[in-house]
Design goal:
By secondary structure, the chain is α+β, with helices and mostly antiparallel strands. Helices cover about 25% and strands about 35% of the residues. Strand 6 and strand 7 form a beta hairpin. The mean pLDDT is about 85.
Amino acid sequence: MSERERLRASLAAYRPRLSGWEAPGAGRGATVAGDGRFLPAAVLLLLDARAGEERLIFQQRTTLVEDHKGQVSLPGGRREETDGSLRETALRETAEEIGVPPGAVEVFGRLDDITTGTGYAVSPFVGALDPAWPGPFRPHPGEVERLLEVPLSHLRGHRSRVRASVIVRGLTRSEDAFLFERTLIWGATGRILHNFLAVIGREENGSP
């Protein structure tokens, strides 16, 4: 079984914890807390093997965006009323932010919903770029400062894991994060990445 086949199988078998309006029985108007405090959003963990190994695509946000200025994030954003699903949100935002059309992405599955301190309920999806897609990526100049193409092998290794001190709303806190070429991946993106690596590690470790 190839690396991509293993990733596809791991995500297909995983049953994520959903807590927003797409959770079982929640109904379209539901939010994570049930009181409107969290806005639904979605992101995409995009795998790209065109360089010969699986890489995850991250983006460093500009200082012009409303939230998470300058931070490393995944392509994605807030759900719009015209989006039929959060999966559609993730694909639409990916097209808008880095220029990858929805038809060039095979969605493998979904990870656990998370909430952020900025008021979003984020639904992460995992997908793979079609090897035949010619590219290139086209980062949105108002939203994306630069792209990071991080090898999956690096993220799986212990050397990528760090304990970092970060400043949030003027307060310093310590949290688990990832490091790639002096760039820190932390916060909501770091939590999503931890979940992703745990899911794809189940098969490797023989977990059910």
